[in-house]
Design a protein that fits this description.
The structure holds 2 protein chains of 2 kinds. Chain A is mainly α. Chain A is about 65% helix and about 0% strand. Chain A has 10 helices and no strands. The termini of chain A are close together. Chain B has helices at about 15-30, 35-45. Chain B starts with 14 loop residues before the first helix and ends with a helix. Chain B contains 2 helices and no strands. Chain B is mainly α. Classes of the chains: A mainly alpha, B mainly alpha. Chains A and B meet through helix 2, helix 3, helix 6, helix 7 and helix 9 of A and helix 1 and helix 2 of B.
Chain lengths: ~220, ~50
């Protein structure tokens, strides 16, 4: 699966592709819509982690919902709606990256406002610092860590979403964990202010250059 | 800061692991903007 196929709005899903398409009854459609509605918060959380800016992340989720609805006949009832829609979202993100939509879009003020930890749960690590650190990771490691470390997917599920081998996901998660641990242990976690922003921007620009030159996050 | 250990099997959760989860959960717990309800309600029209 490539980002281009996702951009067509029909094939943004790997699970289910290639299976016979069965027309959906009204009841099926209602059930599909309920399930789709239930995963919206998860889609928002995944998108926010991927692209950094809440408003663009929500645009990405809306795009994902429309694509999922259009492709609902490819969804196999009983399988994970969350995993299925994450594939669509991921592919939409890659397509948008190619269109330079996220160039330099990390917004410090918005991140600061929206990434405040709930009262009583704030640890020594500020959530916006965490987010900046995440954004400095190479994209394929970032998404692997988001899926496994935050989304609670198994390595197998994450591999299916990213369309790669389980071993590859394990390796990406391991490297991402090591990089974050290193940043925190060394005190080099990107902080608020120009240095941190530069690091996050540099990471986004690296991603962008990578996909602009025909690379993918596979 | 406390060094993080990550050695397989039972391991202490490093500081960032909780942060990562919190980051995700903080979005999960946000109220959903109205734009999503609007979009979901319009899906029926687009599907017919």
């Amino acid at each position: 699966m490539t980002a281009e196929t996702a951009s067509e709005g029909q094939d943004g899903n790997s699970p289910g592709t290639g299976r016979p398409v069965t027309p959906r009854s009204e009841k099926d459609k209602r059930a599909f819509k309920r399930e789709l509605t239930d995963v919206i918060p998860h889609l928002r959380a995944f998108a926010r982690g991927l692209c950094g800016r809440p408003d663009l992340a929500d645009d990405l989720v809306q795009e994902t919902l429309l694509k999922a609805w259009a492709a609902q006949e490819r969804f196999e009832p009983g399988t994970s709606m969350r995993a299925w829609t994450f594939v669509i979202l991921r592919n939409a993100y890659l397509t948008d990256m190619r269109r330079n939509r996220f160039r330099g879009e990390y917004d410090e003020a918005v991140a600061e406002r929206t990434l405040t930890a709930p009262a009583g749960q704030e640890g020594p690590l500020h959530l916006s610092d965490m987010h900046r650190a995440l954004l400095t990771l190479p994209p394929e490691r970032r998404e692997a860590l988001l899926l496994v470390g935050a989304g609670g997917f198994s390595y197998e599920e994450a591999a299916e979403i990213c369309q790669c081998a389980v071993g590859t996901i394990k390796s990406r998660v391991g490297r991402a964990r090591a990089a974050l641990s290193r940043m925190i242990e060394s005190g080099e976690l990107p902080r608020r202010g120009s240095a941190g922003e530069d690091a996050a921007h540099a990471a986004i620009m690296r991603d962008l250059d990578h996909v602009s030159h025909g690379g993918s996050l596979k | 800061m406390r060094p993080a250990r990550d050695r397989g099997g039972k391991r202490p959760r490093p500081e960032w692991a909780d942060g990562l989860r919190q980051l995700y959960d903080s979005v999960l717990n946000e109220p959903l903007p109205d734009s999503f309800a609007d979009l979901i309600s319009k899906l029926d029209e687009s599907g017919k």
